[in-house]
C-alpha cells in the first residue's frame, strides 16, 4: 500500500510551487498513492549491475564554438511578459533573501 | 540586532576554527555557458543595458535548449589543472531545481556527481611567508543567474521592497565553482588564510587569463563556511555559510567575525544554527539568512538536454603544458630574483603591483627603483586621485624615467615633475623633460657662480663652514637649488659649496 | 475540378510544382475545409491569418521561375507544442494562452524554408500529457470517424486534421505515442523518428529524453516527404544526430512500387500480442501479419520481456523530466500571472501555476517532484533509467533476429470521451504499445490496418532499430499499398463524410 500522505503532497506542491486547493490535495493523495503503487515495481526489475540510461542514443562532447549569435530585442523580450518597466521584468516583492 | 562577540584570542583559545570555501569564478568567454548570447563578463559587454544580452535560453523561453560552449570547457579544464585537480574522464551536467525569479528556467544547469575537475590542492602563502596547502574537493561548471533590483522600501534591500526588477543579462554566464574540503589547522591565521586563499584563486584565474576576476564586479564571489569545535573534539561543529563577500578584505573580516560570533554563542551554552549568513560591508557584521531545511531539496538529476563532456586526453595534456607558473611559485621566484626583504616584497604584493613591478623591471629598471616608484610616488598620486596605481602610467615610462635619473639627466625631484607630466598626458618622460625644460644644470661655471653668490649673501654661514660646522652648508645649498629652480644635482652643489668656502 | 483537400499531399505537391494548381488555391481549399468542419472537429486552436499571403509569395516565386522545393506551396498543420513566430504557441495550456514566441522551432523553420504554408496550430493534451486531447485547456478534439470518440493524444489535433481532410500534412510530437496512437485511432499515418533524428529546438519540452518531433499524414509517402524536410542535424539541439540520412520519400516510393517484404524478417512482439489488446484489434493484427507473410515476409515471434516494466519506468521518467521542464512557467517572463496586491512573488508563482495548469499536468508535476526528491531518487528515477537499459538490450537482442518488429499501435480503437479521464492508471496503461520505442529511442510508425468491430480505425505499429527509419517507410509503404489494393484506396477515404457547415 502506498506511503503517500497529505502532508507529503503539500510538501511536494510547495517544492513544485503550485498552490493546490484542499480538494486537490485530497484527490492527489489518493491518486498518487495508486500511481506510486503501480510504478514502484521498477525497483524490483533491476539489480545494481545494470547501468542507467539517461539518453537513448549515447553521444558525448557535443559543443559549440564560442561565437556570438543573435539577441532578442526589448520588444521581443517583453512582448509576452506579464509586467515590465521597458528595461526589466517586474515581479512582486520577494520574501526572504538574496541568493 | 547586534551579535555578541567573543574576544578573538579567547575564541581561539577555546575553539578550533574549521573553514571551507566555495568560490565562483565568472569566465570571460565571448558567449554564455549554454547559448550564443554575448557574455557580460567579457570586456566588450561590461556596459550593456539591462536585458540586451539575452536570447531564448537566457529567458528560459519554452522550447529553448542549451548547447555547451567549448571555450568555457577549455577554460574550466585549465582552471582545474591549475588547482592541481584531476580532470574527469567523463563529466556531466545536472539540473539543480529551485524557484527564484532570477533563475529563468527555475533550474540551474550545474554539475553534481560528475564534476569536470576534482581532488586538487592550492598552495597559499601568508604575509610572513608561511605556506598552507588548501585541499580542493572539486571544481565544476555551471551557469550564473540574472540580477534582481529591489525597488521601494527604505534601503533598496530585499526586505521591505515593494517589487523587484529582473535583468537576465547575467543569466547563463559561465561559472566555475571551486569547492574546498574542510580546512583545519589554520588556527589564529584563519581570517588571513581566508583572504590569502581568495587572493590565490584570483591570481590563478588572472594568470590563466580566463576571467577579469574583479570581485567588485562579481566576477569572483566567495562563500565562506566557518565552524568551531571545542578543543579536543573530533567532530566538526555546525557551520554557517557567509555569502555576499565582495572583497578580499571582507573575506578576512567576515571569517574573523563569524569566529567571534559563534564562539560567544557556544560559550554561552547556545547552539549554532546551520544557515546562510549575509555579510554587510557597511557595518562589518553578518546577519542570519535562510536556515538550511528540507526546502533545499534541489532534486538533482542528469540534464537530459546535454551530453556528457569527456575531455580528450590530448587536449588535457596540451592545456596542462600551457599552464602558466603557479602564482605562489612565481612570487617566491620574483622575491629571490629581486632581493627584496619580506616587508618590501609584501608592500608590492599588498598593493597588487607584482605584475607591474615585474613589467617595469623587464623594461630595464632596477628592481629596487621600480619598487620605490610604484609603492612611493606613483602610489601616492594614485591614492590622491582614487585610482589604481597601475592605471596612471606604464611600466615602460617608469623604467625610462629611472634611466634618466640613473644617467644623471634628472634629479629625483625633477623626475617627479617629469612623472606628473607623463601622467598629465604630455608624452614620454623624455618628451616631458624636453618640453618642460627639466634637464639637470650640469654647467659647472653656472653652478660655481650661483654658489659664490649665495655664500656672499650669507657671510655668517660661510664663517660657520670655515669653522668646520659643515652642516651649516645646508642653507647655502638650499639657496642655490632655489636659484637653479631645482634643476641641479644637490650632491654636486654641496661639493662645490664646501670647495668654494674653503678657498675663499 | 479535383477537391484539393481529398488528394494526397504528394499528389497536391505535384499539381503545385507543375503549376496546375496555385498555392493560394490549395491553401484556400484547406482554409475553407477548416471553416466548414472544424467547428465540429476542433482540430485547430489557431488558424494562420497570414496563410494566404504566404501562399501568394510562393506562387510569385514560382512564377518568377525560382527553383522551389518539391513541397513548396503545400499547406501543413502544426502541433501547438512547436514554437511559431507570429502564431500563438500554447502547448494546449491555459498558462501559455496567447503567447507568441519570438522564434520558430527548427522543424517549423525548415518547413517554411521549403515553402510549405502553415495553416495553423493544432490541438493537443496540455503539454502533451494525455492520450485523448481531453486534457487540452481549450476543449477536446473530436474523432472525425465518430465525434463521440477521442482522436487520441496528445496529438489528437494533428491526426484529426489530416483525417478530416483539413490538411494533407501535419507535425506532431511523440513522447510516449503522441504521434502514433492518434494516427492509429484516426486511420492516419504517423512516425516517431529515431531519437535525435529531428531537432527538438523550439518544441515545448515535455520529457527531454523521450520527446521527438515527427510527421502525421494520410499516407506513408506523405509522412516521408515531411520527414525529409524536418530531419537532420541541428546545432541548436545537443541531442540532434550528426549523420547522413537517406531520403525517406525515396524509401517509401521504393516500398510502394516494388514491394519490400520479400525475405524481410519480421518479429511479432509477444508481450504486445495478447494481454490488454482488444479482440478486434488482435484480429486485424493477425490479418496484417498474414498479409506480411503472404508478401514474402518471414514472421517469427520475439520477446521483449522488459516491456513489463516499460509503463512504470515511463511514468517515472516522464513526470520527473516534466516537473523540471515545466518549472519555467512561473509568470515572470511570459505566460499567465495571477496576483493579488500584497502577495510575494512566491505566492504569485504558486497561484499562477495553480490557475494555469490543468489537473493532469499538476498530477504529473507532483509525481515527478516526488520521484526526484531526496530519498526516493535511486528507488524511482534511478531504477527507471536502469529499466531503460534493459529495454534497449531487449530490443538489441530482438533486432539481432529480425529486421522489423510489429505490434498493434494501440490496444483498442478510439474510446469514448470521459471513459478513462477519471482513471489516470487506465489511461497510462493504454500507452503500453507505444512507450517502449520512446524509452529505447528507436523509430516507430503507425499506419492503418483496418477497422474494428465498431467500424473505427485500427493501427499497425512498425518498429525498426535505431537510425533505420527508412526501413519503416519502405515496409510501411508496401503494407499500405497491399491494403489499399484490398480496400480500393487508403483507409482515410472510408471515413464517414462530415457535414460541412456554410461559412
Automatic annotation (TrEMBL), chain A:
Q: Which reaction does it catalyse?
A: L-glutamyl-tRNA(Gln) + L-glutamine + ATP + H2O = L-glutaminyl-tRNA(Gln) + L-glutamate + ADP + phosphate + H(+); L-aspartyl-tRNA(Asn) + L-glutamine + ATP + H2O = L-asparaginyl-tRNA(Asn) + L-glutamate + ADP + phosphate + 2 H(+)
Enzyme Commission (EC) number: 6.3.5.-
EC supergroup of this enzyme: ligase
Q: Which Gene3D superfamilies match?
A: Glu-tRNAGln amidotransferase C subunit, N-terminal domain
Which InterPro entries does the protein's record reference? Asp/Glu-ADT_sf_sub_c, GatC
Q: Which Pfam families match?
A: GatC
Stored SUPFAM superfamilies? Glu-tRNAGln amidotransferase C subunit (SSF141000)
Key words, A-Z: ATP-binding, Ligase, Nucleotide-binding, Protein biosynthesis
- Say what the protein does: Allows the formation of correctly charged Asn-tRNA(Asn) or Gln-tRNA(Gln) through the transamidation of misacylated Asp-tRNA(Asn) or Glu-tRNA(Gln) in organisms which lack either or both of asparaginyl-tRNA or glutaminyl-tRNA synthetases. The reaction takes place in the presence of glutamine and ATP through an activated phospho-Asp-tRNA(Asn) or phospho-Glu-tRNA(Gln).
HAMAP family attached here?
GatC (MF_00122)
**Which family is annotated?**
Belongs to the GatC family.
Subunit text: Heterotrimer of A, B and C subunits.
**UniProt-recorded name of the protein:** Aspartyl/glutamyl-tRNA(Asn/Gln) amidotransferase subunit C
Q: Which organism is this protein's natural source?
A: Agrococcus terreus
UniProtKB/TrEMBL annotation, chain B:
- Catalyses which reaction? L-glutamyl-tRNA(Gln) + L-glutamine + ATP + H2O = L-glutaminyl-tRNA(Gln) + L-glutamate + ADP + phosphate + H(+); L-aspartyl-tRNA(Asn) + L-glutamine + ATP + H2O = L-asparaginyl-tRNA(Asn) + L-glutamate + ADP + phosphate + 2 H(+)
Catalytic class of the enzyme: ligase
Read off the InterPro entries from this record: Asn/Gln-tRNA_amidoTrfase_suB/E, Asn/Gln-tRNA_Trfase_suB/E_cat, Asn/Gln_amidotransferase, Asn/Gln_tRNA_amidoTrase-B-like, GatB, GatB_Yqey_C_2, Gln-tRNA_amidoTrfase_suB_CS, Gln_synth/guanido_kin_cat_dom
Question: What EC number(s) does this enzyme carry?
Answer: 6.3.5.-
Against SUPFAM superfamilies, the record matches this protein to: GatB/YqeY motif, Glutamine synthetase/guanido kinase
- Could you give the subunit structure recorded for this chain? Heterotrimer of A, B and C subunits.
Q: Give the family this protein belongs to, as stated in its UniProt record.
A: Belongs to the GatB/GatE family. GatB subfamily.
What is this protein's record name?
Answer: Aspartyl/glutamyl-tRNA(Asn/Gln) amidotransferase subunit B
Source species: Agrococcus terreus
Protein encoded by which gene? gatB
Automatic annotation (TrEMBL), chain C:
Gene3D superfamilies assigned:
Amidase signature (AS) domain
Q: What class of enzyme is it?
A: ligase
Which parts pass through the membrane?
A: none
- From the UniProt record, list the reaction(s) this protein catalyses: L-glutamyl-tRNA(Gln) + L-glutamine + ATP + H2O = L-glutaminyl-tRNA(Gln) + L-glutamate + ADP + phosphate + H(+)
> For this protein, what is the EC number?
6.3.5.7
The record ties this protein, via InterPro entries, to: Amidase, Amidase_CS, Amidase_dom, AS_sf, GatA
* Active site (record annotation): 79 (charge relay system), 154 (charge relay system), 178 (acyl-ester intermediate)
Q: Which residues form the Amidase domain?
A: 25-472
Q: Which UniProt keywords apply?
A: ATP-binding, Ligase, Nucleotide-binding, Protein biosynthesis
- Keyword Ligase: yes or no? yes
What job does the chain carry out? Allows the formation of correctly charged Gln-tRNA(Gln) through the transamidation of misacylated Glu-tRNA(Gln) in organisms which lack glutaminyl-tRNA synthetase. The reaction takes place in the presence of glutamine and ATP through an activated gamma-phospho-Glu-tRNA(Gln).
PANTHER family registered for this protein in UniProt: GLUTAMYL-TRNA(GLN) AMIDOTRANSFERASE SUBUNIT A (PTHR11895:SF151), TRANSAMIDASE (PTHR11895)
Q: Which family does it belong to?
A: Belongs to the amidase family. GatA subfamily.
Stored HAMAP family: GatA
Question: What quaternary arrangement does the UniProt entry report?
Answer: Heterotrimer of A, B and C subunits.
| Protein's name in the database | Glutamyl-tRNA(Gln) amidotransferase subunit A
Organism of provenance: Agrococcus terreus
Name of the gene encoding the protein in the UniProt record: gatA
Amino acid at each position: 500500500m502506498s506511503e503517500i500522505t497529505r502532508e507529503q503532497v503539500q510538501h511536494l506542491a510547495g517544492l513544485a510551487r503550485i498552490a493546490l486547493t484542499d480538494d486537490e490535495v485530497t484527490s492527489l493523495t489518493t491518486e498518487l498513492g495508486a500511481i506510486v503503487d503501480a510504478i514502484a515495481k521498477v525497483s524490483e526489475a533491476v539489480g545494481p549491475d545494470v547501468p542507467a540510461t539517461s539518453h537513448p542514443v549515447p553521444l558525448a562532447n557535443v559543443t559549440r564554438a564560442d561565437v556570438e549569435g543573435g539577441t532578442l530585442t526589448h520588444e521581443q523580450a517583453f512582448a509576452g511578459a506579464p509586467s515590465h518597466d521597458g528595461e526589466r521584468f517586474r515581479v512582486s516583492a520577494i520574501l526572504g533573501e538574496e541568493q | 540586532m547586534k551579535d555578541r562577540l567573543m574576544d578573538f584570542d579567547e575564541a581561539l583559545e577555546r575553539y578550533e576554527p574549521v573553514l571551507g570555501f566555495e568560490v565562483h569564478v565568472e569566465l570571460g568567454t565571448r558567449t554564455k555557458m549554454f547559448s550564443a548570447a554575448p557574455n557580460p563578463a567579457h570586456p566588450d559587454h561590461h556596459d550593456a543595458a539591462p536585458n540586451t544580452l539575452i536570447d531564448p535560453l537566457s529567458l528560459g523561453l519554452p522550447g529553448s535548449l542549451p548547447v555547451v560552449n567549448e571555450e568555457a570547457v577549455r577554460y574550466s579544464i585549465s582552471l582545474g589543472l591549475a588547482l592541481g585537480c584531476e580532470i574527469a574522464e567523463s563529466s556531466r551536467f545536472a539540473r539543480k531545481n529551485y524557484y527564484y525569479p532570477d533563475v529563468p528556467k527555475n533550474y540551474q544547469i550545474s554539475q553534481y556527481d560528475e564534476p569536470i575537475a576534482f581532488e586538487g590542492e592550492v598552495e597559499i602563502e601568508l604575509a610572513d611567508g608561511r605556506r598552507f596547502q588548501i585541499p580542493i574537493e572539486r571544481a565544476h561548471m555551471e551557469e550564473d543567474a540574472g540580477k534582481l533590483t529591489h525597488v521601494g522600501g527604505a534601503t533598496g534591500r530585499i526586505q521591505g521592497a515593494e517589487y523587484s526588477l529582473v535583468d537576465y543579462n547575467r543569466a547563463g554566464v559561465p561559472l566555475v565553482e571551486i569547492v574546498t574540503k574542510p580546512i583545519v589547522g589554520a588556527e589564529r591565521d584563519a581570517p588571513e588564510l581566508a583572504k590569502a586563499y581568495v587572493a590565490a584563486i584570483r591570481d590563478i584565474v588572472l594568470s590563466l587569463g580566463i576571467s577579469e576576476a574583479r570581485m567588485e564586479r562579481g566576477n569572483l564571489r566567495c562563500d565562506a563556511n566557518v565552524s568551531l569545535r571545542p578543543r579536543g573534539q573530533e567532530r566538526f561543529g555546525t557551520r554557517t555559510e557567509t555569502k555576499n563577500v565582495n572583497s578580499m578584505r571582507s573575506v578576512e573580516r567576515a571569517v574573523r567575525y563569524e569566529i567571534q560570533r559563534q564562539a560567544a554563542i557556544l560559550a554561552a551554552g547556545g547552539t549554532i544554527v546551520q544557515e546562510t549568513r549575509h555579510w554587510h560591508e557597511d557595518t562589518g557584521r553578518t546577519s542570519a539568512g535562510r536556515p538550511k531545511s528540507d526546502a533545499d531539496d534541489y532534486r538533482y538529476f542528469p540534464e537530459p538536454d546535454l551530453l556528457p563532456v569527456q575531455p580528450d586526453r590530448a587536449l588535457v595534456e596540451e592545456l596542462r603544458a600551457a599552464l602558466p607558473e603557479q602564482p605562489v611559485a612565481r612570487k617566491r621566484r620574483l622575491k629571490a630574483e629581486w632581493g627584496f626583504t619580506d616587508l618590501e616584497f609584501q608592500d608590492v604584493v599588498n598593493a597588487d603591483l607584482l605584475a607591474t613591478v615585474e613589467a617595469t623591471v623587464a623594461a630595464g629598471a632596477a628592481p629596487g627603483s621600480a619598487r620605490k616608484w610604484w609603492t612611493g610616488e606613483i602610489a601616492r598620486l594614485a591614492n590622491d586621485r582614487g585610482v589604481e596605481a597601475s592605471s596612471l602610467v606604464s611600466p615602460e615610462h617608469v623604467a625610462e624615467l629611472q634611466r634618466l635619473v640613473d644617467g644623471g639627466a634628472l634629479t629625483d625631484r625633477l623626475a617627479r615633475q617629469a612623472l606628473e607630466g607623463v601622467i598629465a598626458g604630455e608624452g614620454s618622460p623624455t618628451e616631458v623633460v624636453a618640453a618642460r625644460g627639466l634637464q639637470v644644470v650640469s654647467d659647472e661655471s653656472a653652478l660655481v657662480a650661483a654658489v659664490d653668490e649665495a655664500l656672499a649673501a650669507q657671510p655668517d654661514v660661510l664663517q660657520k663652514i670655515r669653522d668646520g660646522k659643515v652642516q651649516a652648508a645646508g642653507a647655502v645649498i638650499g639657496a642655490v637649488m632655489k636659484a637653479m629652480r631645482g634643476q641641479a644635482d644637490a650632491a654636486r652643489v654641496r661639493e662645490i659649496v664646501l670647495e668654494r668656502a674653503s678657498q675663499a | 475540378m479535383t477537391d484539393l483537400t481529398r488528394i494526397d499531399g504528394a499528389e497536391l505537391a505535384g499539381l503545385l510544382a507543375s503549376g496546375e494548381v496555385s498555392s493560394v488555391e490549395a491553401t484556400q481549399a484547406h482554409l475553407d475545409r477548416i471553416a466548414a468542419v472544424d467547428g465540429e472537429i476542433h482540430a485547430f486552436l489557431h488558424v494562420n491569418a497570414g496563410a494566404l499571403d504566404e501562399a501568394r509569395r510562393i506562387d510569385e516565386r514560382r512564377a518568377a521561375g525560382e527553383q522551389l522545393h518539391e513541397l513548396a506551396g503545400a499547406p501543413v498543420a502544426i502541433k501547438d507544442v512547436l514554437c511559431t513566430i507570429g502564431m500563438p504557441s500554447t502547448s494546449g495550456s491555459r498558462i501559455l494562452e496567447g503567447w507568441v514566441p519570438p522564434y520558430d522551432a527548427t522543424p517549423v523553420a525548415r518547413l517554411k524554408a521549403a515553402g510549405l504554408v502553415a495553416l495553423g496550430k493544432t490541438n493537443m493534451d496540455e503539454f502533451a500529457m494525455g492520450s485523448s486531447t481531453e486534457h487540452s485547456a481549450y476543449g477536446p478534439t473530436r474523432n472525425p470517424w465518430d465525434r463521440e470518440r477521442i482522436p487520441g493524444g496528445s496529438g489528437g489535433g494533428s491526426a484529426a486534421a489530416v483525417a478530416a481532410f483539413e490538411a494533407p500534412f501535419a507535425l506532431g510530437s511523440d513522447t510516449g505515442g503522441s504521434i502514433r496512437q492518434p494516427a492509429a485511432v484516426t486511420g492516419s499515418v504517423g512516425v516517431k523518428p529515431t531519437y535525435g533524428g529531428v531537432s527538438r529546438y523550439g518544441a515545448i519540452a515535455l520529457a527531454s529524453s523521450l520527446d521527438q518531433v515527427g510527421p502525421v499524414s494520410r499516407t506513408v509517402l506523405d509522412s516521408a516527404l515531411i520527414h525529409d524536410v524536418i530531419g537532420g542535424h541541428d546545432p541548436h539541439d545537443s541531442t540532434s544526430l550528426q549523420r547522413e540520412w537517406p531520403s525517406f520519400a525515396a524509401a517509401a516510393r521504393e516500398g510502394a512500387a516494388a514491394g519490400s517484404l520479400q525475405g524481410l524478417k519480421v518479429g511479432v512482439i509477444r508481450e504486445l500480442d495478447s494481454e490488454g489488446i482488444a479482440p478486434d484489434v488482435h484480429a486485424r493484427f493477425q490479418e496484417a501479419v498474414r498479409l506480411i507473410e503472404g508478401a514474402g515476409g518471414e514472421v517469427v515471434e520475439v520477446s521483449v520481456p522488459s516491456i513489463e516494466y516499460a509503463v512504470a519506468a515511463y511514468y517515472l521518467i516522464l513526470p520527473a523530466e516534466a516537473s523540471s521542464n515545466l518549472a519555467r512557467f512561473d509568470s515572470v517572463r511570459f505566460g499567465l500571472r495571477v496576483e493579488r496586491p500584497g502577495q510575494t512573488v512566491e505566492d504569485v508563482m504558486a497561484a499562477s501555476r495553480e490557475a494555469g495548469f490543468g489537473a493532469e499536468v499538476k498530477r504529473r508535476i507532483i509525481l515527478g517532484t516526488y520521484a526526484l526528491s531526496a530519498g526516493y531518487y535511486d528507488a524511482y528515477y534511478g531504477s527507471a533509467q536502469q529499466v531503460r537499459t534493459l529495454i534497449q538490450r531487449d530490443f538489441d537482442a530482438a533486432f539481432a533476429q529480425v529486421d522489423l518488429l510489429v505490434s498493434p499501435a494501440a490496444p483498442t480503437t478510439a474510446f469514448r470521451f470521459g471513459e478513462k479521464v477519471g482513471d489516470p492508471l487506465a489511461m497510462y496503461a493504454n500507452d503500453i504499445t507505444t512507450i517502449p520505442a520512446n524509452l529505447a529511442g528507436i523509430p516507430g510508425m503507425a499506419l492503418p490496418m483496418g477497422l474494428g468491430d465498431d467500424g473505427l480505425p485500427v493501427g499497425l505499429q512498425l518498429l525498426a532499430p535505431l537510425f533505420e527509419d527508412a526501413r519503416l517507410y519502405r515496409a510501411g509503404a508496401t503494407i499500405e499499398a497491399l491494403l489499399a489494393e484490398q480496400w480500393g484506396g487508403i483507409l482515410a477515404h472510408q471515413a464517414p463524410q462530415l457535414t460541412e457547415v456554410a461559412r
